[in-house]
Design brief:
The structure is a single chain. By secondary structure, the chain is of the alpha+beta class. The protein has five helices and five strands. It has two domains: about 90 residues, no CATH class; about 50 residues. Strand 3 and strand 4 form a beta hairpin. The longest helix is centred in the last third of the chain and has 24 residues. It starts with 8 loop residues before the first helix and ends with a helix.
Length: about 160
């Protein structure tokens, strides 16, 4: 069974503007608009632990202090200037590839119907908060809520 849910755009496209820095393949570092190459690269975050890892590129602050393009990029008095790029985890990469498949596109068009029914269960029939304690109580509440929604649909279809 596959998850038919779109990834957050910040995961697939990133949060930053694309024109801030460019990647220099030969040096394996990012270059700022003024043409200054990053001086150091570090990887942050633990591998396979919840969040994505990031590559952080550090720039020479002394160059940033006298740079004509520093407005908006360098804050006076800052001790460091860095640029971080998120490395997508395997789960995010797989989901991004899955989003491009025709099956995903077809199923995501039907998802709004399911979400509307879930919304009705939660907000109109009290399925968002458990009325009793324990698993059995929640199962009973769910059964009654689903039965009520189905009964309403049957009555509506019958006229």
């Amino acid at each position: 069974m596959a998850l038919v849910a779109k990834l957050n755009p910040s995961v697939t496209q990133g949060n930053r503007r694309k024109d801030e820095f460019e990647f220099n393949k030969d040096a394996g570092m990012y270059v700022c608009k003024a043409g200054h190459l990053a001086v150091k690269k570090a990887r942050h975050g633990k591998e396979n632990i919840g969040k994505n890892q990031t590559n952080t590129y550090y720039f020479d602050v002394e160059k940033c202090k006298v740079c004509p393009l520093r407005d908006g990029y360098y804050k006076p008095g800052a001790k460091s200037k860095s640029y971080s790029v998120s490395i997508k985890s395997d789960n995010h990469s797989d989901q991004a590839k899955f989003q491009e498949i025709e099956y995903f596109k077809e199923k995501s068009k039907e998802r709004y119907k399911i979400e509307a029914k879930n919304n009705e269960l939660k907000h109109r029939h009290g399925y968002n908060i458990s009325k009793s304690s324990g698993l059995v109580g929640m199962q009973m509440q769910g059964a009654v809520a689903i039965f009520t929604v189905n009964l309403k649909r049957i009555l509506k279809l019958r006229g």
